[in-house]
Amino acid sequence: METGDLDTFELDLSLILHALSDPQRRTIVRELAASSEPVPCGQIELNVGKSTRTHHFRVLREAGLIEQRRDGTRKLTSLRREAVDAKFPGLLDAVLAPVPA
Question: Domains in the chain, start-ordered, CATH in brackets?
Fold first, then answer.
């Protein structure tokens, strides 16, 4: 799925919740939420192999949480925060909130 293929109101809550159920994918979402600019995929620190990393980004992309675009040899990733917040207000804030000790 290319950038812009998923309309805000085509977002599916079950796909989003499944994507956010994995701690590695939540790490990716947190990193993207903390950045004001698109982030190169390789810049996000995950302790997994390349194929597993690719899988995690694909799940997030297919759920509509992220969008990716090519910039030369890099793939830049950004969180679709506005679209997700428009359809599911407060969801990302709840997921990204620190867990109480």
Answer: 8-96 (1.10.10.10)
